[in-house]
Each structure stands twice: as structure tokens, then as C-alpha cells.
């Protein structure tokens, strides 16, 4: 229902007073504390401008901004971004968050974020991992997808149970606007996790032909399921069927961060270091990396914004409403298995910034030394087949497993529908990394094909067992203590039999 005594506010003279403290220092969020210092005055001005015309409908948004920060920050950014795109914003209704109009079309929009699981390291902690390797990156991706699934399901449920019954929402496109803040360095994920969450697709798979020095696309990386910390696997592909037909699209950004506010006034932050990755259409999936100091680094308000269309939506969204070169638009044609993306060369994929502070200038940025955070990343089981999906040439329905330091990819032949497998002697977690491995890592391929993926997998394991029993060198650093024990026993038994 419309709010009493609260009409649509006129842009240009109404902004919120965000930085007059309404809570004590102990209750303030570290991100809020970090921009209260004198050198961040220009950043405070940018964020305040984002609130131009924003209605504090329940008179608590300022307190939430100072104490929990990220959800309010995201709503302020959306207010500015939607205005920049030419939408009129009506906040005279108490729900959903935004009713926006443009070119005689009205859209209902709800804002949400992903947060860290209870007990896990928050995004602001800058919790440094002991080692950044493929396994760690794989685990980070699982957490990102699980948190996205949770947030989208929650808002979809709220729409079906509540918003859809409102007169100002009925029969109108509905979009969920989501930003990730679920773990330290979340901004490095780009749009990979949300692509997999919605469409099950990630990126094209490339292969370099050394004989001709050419690169060609040979398939598509996919992800069928996300793995929770307890090992439970959750189906991905929210937009791969009509189960969420009520959602017209997802508006997403992993760059609506403090770095965004810093970048929009970089000329006044001359001691801040900015780094970013940008899409390069000529570099086969490898982004350009840019490092510049304040004053040299430039970034627009809308860069890094993505719109993901739901092909099964009952109320379709006119993409022309979001027509801007800085907005990347994604869609998927499931009938023809075709992923489409409208993206400009040089588009911002991820970014970060670092501002040095004088000792004692600001506190609250890092957790106390005695704080121990819960490990919420999944532990991948050894000797277990995980479904990947994806295609590589005639190989479809790819699966992956790890066995005594080897990676085994099990695939189905698209013609005969039987199963084969290939093993390489290094632990990797994606088809692209598997293809990139050179032959010096070891290579095992059973020339036979089998009726099931389990049969193909077990046959390849036997070939690996044969190598191990003959004492072939193995990367023991990749093995668990139990696997090392089994390997020692296997080699000891083999020596006994030879005697």
C-alpha cells in the first residue's frame, strides 16, 4: 500500500544525512568507520549523492547503513544507477523496494545481498587464506553459488507469497537486484558464480593449437550443482526451467563496492592504488589487468552492472530499458543450447582498491587477533564422482573425480552415448585447467568405452592402480594422510609379490 504522507520525492535537493553518527562507535560497521576519516570526505560525498531522492520509508536506513552497511550501500547504489539509466523511481509504496518506470513500462524491483554464513569470516575482515590454489578457488566458488541460491530463493518466495498480490505489482515484470558480500575478496569472483547459478554455464573452453599457433573454442564450461560445506549438492540453473517464471531478470553487480565510490572520485584520492580486470574480446577469456593510482584510474557508475534475463519469465522484460554500453546483458536459449552475452570490449569484470592509512588514523578494519572464524568451505571427497556438465567436442555430460593425486574426467560420447575417461596426474577442478595440462603431467586413457560412467571411472582407476603398484612417481603433496598410508601399503605389497 502507499505510505501515508510520503509522496515521490523530487530529485536534486533531497539527500540523506548518512554520516552524522546515530550509533556509538562500538556498534559501527568497519566499512562505515573506514570512510569517516578526513581523507575520505570525497567518498562520503559520492555515497551521499547516491541517496538523492531516496525515501527512508521506515526511518531506520541510516542506522542500518552505520551498523550493517552493505545492504543499505547496495540500495543507495541502485537508486543512483537506476536513475542514471533513465528510470523514474516511485518509493511511495512500502514494498517491494523499488517501483521503476521508463518508456511506459513499469517494473517491480527488490534489492538483496549475499552475506557471510554465521560464524564465517565477513567480507570486511580481509581474512587471508593460507594458500591460494585451484582447490581454494573452487571452494570459494561453491560458497558464492550457495549464498546466491539462498538469497534468490528467499526473494522469490517473498514475491509469490506477498508482492504478487499487490495491485501495483500484478502483471508487471519483477527483477531481483543482488550484490555479493559473502566472503573476503568476494569482488574477485566476477560474474562467474551468478552465471552458473542461473544458467549452469560459465565460460567457453579454449584450446591452443601449437602447430598453427591458433586458439579455438572447443566447448563450454558448465556447472550442474553447487556443493555445501556438509557435502550436500544443490542443483543449479534457476533460469533453466519455469520454476522461477515469476522472476523476469536478475540485476547483478560485484563492483558496487567501496572501490566504486573511491573510483568515482579517484582524482581526490591520489595515494589510493586501484586494480581492475577488464574483458578483452581478442584474448580468449583472459582479461586485461590494470593497475593505476588515483587520478589516473577512471570508472563509470554503471560499469560492472549485469542483467540476466529469464527465458521462462511470464512477464518479459524489454532489454532496451537497460540499453547502456556499460551494462552487460545475458540470456540463454535452452532450445538451441546457446548462451548469449552483449558485452563491450573493455568492460569492467572486477576491481579493488587500497588506501594507506596512518597508524591510529582508523580502527575497526580488521578482526581482533583472538577471533577464529568457522571454515564454511566444502571438503571435496576423494574417490567420488562430481557432475560438471559442459561439452568438449563430442564429449558431453562431463564428470570429475580425484584419485591419489590424479584428476579423472569421465564423459559421455554424444554419438554412441557410451562412457569414456581420461586421467592426468595433477589435481584440477575445471575442464579448462584439465585441457591445459601438458603431457608431462602424465596421461592415462582407456581406449575402451563403457555402458556407465561408473564403469569407465573404475576401469581408469585400475590403470592408475597399476602405475602406483609399479612405483611410478606420484605427487604425494596432493594426497591425504590416509591416501599416503594406502599408497605405502600398496607399494610394499607389490615389492613383496615381486620377491
| Strand order in space, largest sheet | 1-2-3-4-9-12-13-14
> What is Rg?
25 Å
Please report which band the strand proportion falls in: under 5%, 5-15%, 15-25%, 25-35%, 35-45% or over 45%: 15-25%
Report the principal-axis shape. globular
Number of separate helices? 10
Return the domain count: 2
Largest sheet descriptor: 8 strands, mixed
Estimate percent helicity.
Answer: 10-25%
Report the end-to-end length measured between terminal Cα atoms. Answer: 86 Å
Q: Which structural class matches the secondary elements?
A: alpha+beta
Low-confidence stretches: 1-11, 494-499
Kindly state the mean pLDDT as a whole number?
86
What is the number of strand segments?
Answer: 21
Give the SSE layout.
Blueprint (H helix, E strand, L loop, with lengths): L29 H5 L6 H10 L10 H7 L2 H15 L3 E3 L7 E5 L2 E10 L19 H28 L12 E7 L11 H8 L1 E9 L4 E9 L2 E3 L5 E3 L13 E5 L4 H6 L9 E6 L9 E6 L11 E5 L17 E7 L4 E5 L5 E7 L31 E4 L1 E2 L2 E9 L2 E8 L5 E6 L6 H6 L6 E3 L7 H17 L11 H18 L1
Parallel strand pairs: 3-4, 4-9, 12-13
Antiparallel strand pairs: 1-2, 2-3, 5-6, 6-17, 7-8, 9-12, 10-11, 10-15, 13-14, 16-18, 18-19, 19-20, 20-21
Helix pairs in contact: 2-4, 3-4, 5-6
Amino acid at each position: 500500500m502507499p505510505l501515508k504522507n510520503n509522496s515521490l520525492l523530487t530529485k536534486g535537493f533531497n539527500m540523506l544525512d548518512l554520516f552524522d553518527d546515530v550509533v556509538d562507535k562500538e556498534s559501527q560497521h568497519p566499512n562505515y568507520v573506514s570512510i569517516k576519516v578526513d581523507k575520505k570526505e570525497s567518498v562520503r560525498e559520492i555515497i551521499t549523492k547516491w541517496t538523492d531522492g531516496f525515501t527512508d520509508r521506515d526511518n531506520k536506513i541510516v542506522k542500518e547503513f552505520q551498523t550493517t552497511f552493505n545492504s543499505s550501500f547496495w540500495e543507495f547504489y541502485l537508486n543512483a544507477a537506476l536513475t542514471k539509466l533513465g528510470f523514474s523511481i516511485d518509493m511511495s509504496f512500502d514494498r517491494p523496494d523499488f517501483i521503476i518506470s521508463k518508456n511506459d513500462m513499469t517494473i517491480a524491483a527488490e534489492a538483496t545481498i549475499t552475506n557471510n554464513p554465521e560464524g564465517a569470516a565477513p567480507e570486511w575482515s580481509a581474512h587471508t587464506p593460507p594458500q591460494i590454489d585451484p582447490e581454494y578457488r573452487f571452494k570459494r566458488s561453491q560458497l558464492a553459488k550457495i549464498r546466491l541460491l539462498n538469497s534468490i530463493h528467499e526473494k522469490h518466495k517473498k514475491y509469490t507469497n506477498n508482492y504478487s498480490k499487490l495491485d501495483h505489482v500484478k502483471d508487471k515484470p519483477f527483477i531481483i537486484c543482488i550484490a555479493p558480500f559473502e566472503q573476503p575478496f568476494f569482488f574477485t569472483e566476477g560474474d562467474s558464480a551468478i552465471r552458473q547459478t542461473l544458467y549452469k554455464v560459465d565460460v567457453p573452453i579454449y584450446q591452443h593449437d601449437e602447430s598453427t599457433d591458433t586458439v579455438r573454442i572447443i566447448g563450454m564450461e558448465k556447472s550442474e550443482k553447487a556443493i555445501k560445506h556438509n557435502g550436500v549438492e544443490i542443483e543449479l540453473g534457476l533460469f533453466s526451467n519455469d520454476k522461477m517464471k515469476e522472476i523476469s531478470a536478475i540485476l547483478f553487480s560485484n563492483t558496487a563496492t567501496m572501490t566504486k565510490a573511491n573510483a568515482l572520485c579517484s582524482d581526490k584520492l591520489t595515494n589510493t592504488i586501484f586494480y581492475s580486470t577488464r574483458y578483452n574480446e581478442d584474448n580468449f577469456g583472459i582479461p586485461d589487468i590494470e593497475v593505476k593510482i588515483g587520478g589516473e584510474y577512471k570508472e563509470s557508475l554503471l560499469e560492472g552492472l549485469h542483467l540476466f534475463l529469464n527465458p521462462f519469465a511470464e512477464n518479459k522484460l524489454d532489454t532496451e530499458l537497460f540499453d547502456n554500453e556499460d551494462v552487460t546483458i545475458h540470456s540463454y536459449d535452452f532450445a538451441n543450447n546457446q548462451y548469449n552475452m552483449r558485452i563491450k570490449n573493455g568492460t569492467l569484470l572486477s576491481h579493488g582498491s587500497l588506501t594507506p592509512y596512518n597508524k591510529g588514523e582508523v580502527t575497526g578494519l580488521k578482526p581482533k587477533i583472538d577471533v577464529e572464524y568457522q571454515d564454511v568451505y566444502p571438503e571435496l571427497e576423494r574417490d567420488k564422482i562430481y557432475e560438471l556438465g559442459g561439452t568438449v567436442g563430442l564429449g558431453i555430460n562431463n564428470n570429475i573425480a580425484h584419485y591419489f593425486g590424479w584428476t579423472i574426467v569421465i564423459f559421455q560420447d554424444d554419438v554412441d552415448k557410451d562412457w569414456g575417461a581420461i586421467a592426468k596426474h595433477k589435481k584440477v577442478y575445471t575442464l579448462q585447467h584439465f585441457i591445459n595440462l601438458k603431457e608431462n603431467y602424465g596421461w592415462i586413457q582407456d581406449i575402451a568405452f563403457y555402458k556407465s560412467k561408473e564403469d569407465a571411472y573404475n576401469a581408469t582407476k585400475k590403470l592408475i592402480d597399476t602405475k602406483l603398484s609399479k612405483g611410478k612417481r606420484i605427487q604425494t603433496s596432493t594426497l591425504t594422510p590416509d591416501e599416503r598410508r594406502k599408497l605405502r601399503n600398496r607399494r610394499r605389497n607389490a615389492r613383496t609379490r615381486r620377491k
